[in-house]
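Kindly go through the entry underneath: sequence plus fold tokens. Please state briefly how this chain folds according to its tokens.
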Amino acid sequence: VQLQASGGGLVSPGGSLRLSCTASGFTLDKYAIGWFRQAPGRERDGVASINSGGGGKYYVSPVRGRFTISRDNAKNTVYLQMTNVLPEDTATYFCATLPSSTVAFINPAEGDYWGQGTQVTVSS
């Protein structure tokens, strides 16, 4: 059972990037999924989450209106579309499964299966 986050890289301020979270060994369609990020020297924070059906999407204030979470259960993948990125978005981004009952809280302490992170650097 493994999740893998990918799609990170170097992007200029105001640019866009799409992260992917892909599962191996199990299917994602029964799981709520969260995206989290951790900058050097800081705690891991929630970014966005989505329920298993894709109808419920939740965002933390700093990214609302700029990031969009979505899922394609046929491809066993959850996406995080990042637009109008800011230098403060620089971090390692992780995805994890979340309990359906508390998906809206995007709480990293409730993450169950985690993937290896992908680095996003926003710099000119």
Q: What stands out?
A: The two ends are 37 Å apart (CA to CA).
